């Protein structure tokens, strides 16, 4: 057997192994990227749901301050608080005090501004 024959035999053995390794690495990277994308989308959907639930509860508690609405608002408040920038959190804190004091006519004045701030945050998610 000549050196060329040995070389061809070695390449014939090694080439499929290298091809398989490269293919497996590519598949692992593709699955990792797919997993990261799915996690990112779930995070966006989660935040969007929190924002929407809060806005609904906030508007309801200001329009109809029933005990159930106050409970729903309270539940949503702490969740939305952590996802918003400081300026919006400051306004939320003021509103929360007004709602706690049952000053709903004062709290309703913040609905539009806070809704717009949250809308801006939701737009950033996309």
Fold and architecture overview:
This protein is mainly α and 126 residues long. The chain is built from five helices and no strands. It is rod-shaped and about 95 Å long. The termini are far apart.
Quickly describe the structure.
By secondary structure, the chain is mainly α. The protein has one domain: Up-down Bundle (Four Helix Bundle (Hemerythrin (Met), subunit A)).
Class by helix and strand content?
Answer: mainly alpha
Strand content: under 5%
- Named at the architecture level, the CATH assignment is Up-down Bundle
Number of domains: 1
- Give the count of helical stretches: 5
Please tell me what the overall shape is: rod-shaped
Bin the helical content: over 70%
Please write the CATH class name: Mainly Alpha
Taken in chain order, the helices and strands follow as: HHHHH
What is the residue-mean pLDDT, rounded to a whole number? Answer: 89
Low-confidence stretches: none
Stated plainly, the CATH topology is called: Four Helix Bundle (Hemerythrin (Met), subunit A)
Q: What's the count of strands?
A: 0
Characterize the largest beta sheet: strand count, sense, and whether it forms a barrel.
none
Distance between the termini: 64 Å
Gyration radius, in Å: 28 Å
């Amino acid at each position: 057997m000549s050196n060329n024959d040995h070389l061809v035999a070695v390449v014939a053995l090694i080439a499929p192994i290298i091809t398989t390794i490269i293919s497996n690495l590519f598949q692992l990277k593709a699955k990792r990227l797919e997993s990261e994308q799915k996690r990112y989308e779930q995070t966006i959907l989660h935040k969007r749901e929190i924002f929407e639930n809060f806005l609904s509860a906030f508007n309801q508690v200001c329009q109809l301050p029933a005990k159930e609405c106050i409970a729903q608002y309270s539940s949503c408040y702490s969740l939305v608080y952590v996802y918003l920038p400081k300026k919006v959190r400051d306004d939320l804190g003021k509103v929360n005090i007004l709602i706690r004091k049952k000053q709903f006519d004062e709290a309703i004045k913040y609905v539009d501004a806070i809704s717009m701030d949250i809308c801006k945050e939701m737009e950033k998610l996309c």
